[in-house]
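User: quick one, fold this
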Amino acid sequence: MNIMIFEDVISLTRKLISFNTVNPDGNEEGIARFVGKLLSQNGFTVNYHQLAQNRLTVIAKKGLSGEMHPLVMTGHFDTVPIGAKQWNEDPLSGTIKEGKIYGRGSSDMKGGVAAMICAAVQAFQKSVPLGGIRLIFTAGEEPGCLGAVHLAETGYNLGKASAIIVGEPTSNVPAIGHKGALYLKVSVSGKTAHSSMPELGDNAIYKAARAITKIENFRFRADRNELHGFPTINVGLVSGGKNLNSVPDHAEFTIDIRSTGKVTHAEILERLSQELGKEVTIEKLVDLPPVSSSELSPFVQLVYSVCDVNPDQGVLRKSLPYMTDGAVLQQLYDGVPTIILGPGQPEMAHQTDEFCYVDKIEEAVEIYKNIILKYGGITGDKIS
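Assistant:
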């Protein structure tokens, strides 16, 4: 008999918010064990995959059959730091005021995870969805999909999928893709000396500054992608030197590139290496492709129908600027249709006093449940 520990999705969301899963460190084991137990009690087969000590990803499945590959629903447990600015509400309390639930991760994306759990459980209470469901809730997504990448690199068997829903914040408006990400760390070496005699040294910060100026003026030479637009580049972190009165012998900075597929990451990296020259060393931190799905896909058409959106009206944001685990999972699942769809407010992600509208989380449960129950009737995705 199916059971739920929590009476409703909002109670579950509050419980998930109460787990401190701030990244770095993450410490997702506690929330992973809790979610795994809840799913197990509701008839799901649950497995855990360890990213690092105290860091677990949950992989759960139910109702898988030979008639159709399952629908994969995915989210992440970790959050960004709470931040230095004082919150008006306890960021781990899940306080509810004026129709909003506050807390770190309420929008990004514990509200989405809670909605997926409830929808999956409730769908099986109504019927046995054709093909079944696989849930993947990852550790370490925020720094660059580390949990999902670890699944791929360790060869974890995730089986097959017919489609993917990523529950990142979209205010319940579906998107059919997002840009790729190439994260780089650039290191520069010099020679130290007393700052009163700088001619005896080689200032690494000056070298870094020259390189950063070149990046500011960098042009991708890429045509506009119909879905994703143009690629972007940003220097987000700079560090160098040890003290005020020395010539610094080391400096480094990061580059965040959001790509569109019109130019490959290898081509971008080669051009950057040429333009920045031999003064710098470039290390690749994250290398993930864009996510794209065809609007002609029956799955995409079904999601549009359930969400009551008309893509021809011109108000639908079809591609998102931020990255998700979909970049890893769509590759692992041979390019199946991938939708980003979740109850969170995109503009509230990573913000002080982060919140999600209560009715959006409740609405997401119904949306996910309807997609699950209706998806089995789509033709063309059957296993031959």
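User: anything notable?
Assistant: The chain has two domains: 9-178+291-375, 180-288.
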